[in-house]
Amino acid sequence: MPKKQFSEFSALLRAQRKLLLEEVRAKIAASDDSLGFVNQSKITDDDGLADAAAEMEVAMVIRESQELQEVEAALARIADASYGSCFDCGEEIGQARLKAYPAARRCLPCQEKYERTQGQLFKSGL
Ligand SMILES: [Zn+2]
Predict the structure, then answer these.
(1) Residue 27 pLDDT grade (very low, low, confident, very high; cuts 50, 70, 90)
(2) Ligand 1 center to residue 71 CA distance, Å?
């Protein structure tokens, strides 16, 4: 990829990072409230519901943190000029895929192969 295009994807990744950080921060800030919900529901004997809600919240924060790591890794690849090359085959990932998913580390054929070998575990498009 021509280096002048790095700045375009760098801007996309930075915007994505800002959004994810805000979401994670908001969820962590709101976790006091959901703890209140958990405690309250203990009184009403509705542990199952409270646990499910708390688990969902935690799962979302974990997922967003992982996305954040992917974005950070992509920004690091821009910094060392390896951005845009497939992790597995070294070919160009392709503008369309990078525009849709700037943190992508594999080209589409390699990503599909990777997901097949990973089975059902990774369906996120990372
Ligand atoms: Zn590839």
Answers:
(1) confident
(2) 19
5 Cα to the center of ligand 1, angstroms:
20
Backbone angles phi, psi at 94, to 5 degrees: 110, 135
pLDDT at 42 over 60: no
Report pTM. Answer: 0.74
Which tokens sit at 116?
A: 């097949």
User: Which residue did the predictor score with more confidence, 98 or 44?
Assistant: 98
Residue 3 near residue 51 (C-beta atoms within 8 A): no
Please report the domains of the chain, with CATH numbers, ordered by start residue: 3-118 (1.20.120.910)
CA 82 – ligand 1 centroid, Å? 14
CA dist 95 and 35 (Å) reads 44
**CA 70–ligand 1 middle distance (angstroms):** 17
Distances (CA, A) of 14 to 6, 17, 36: 12, 5, 34
Mean pLDDT of the chain: 85
Average of pLDDT values for 28-51?
A: 65
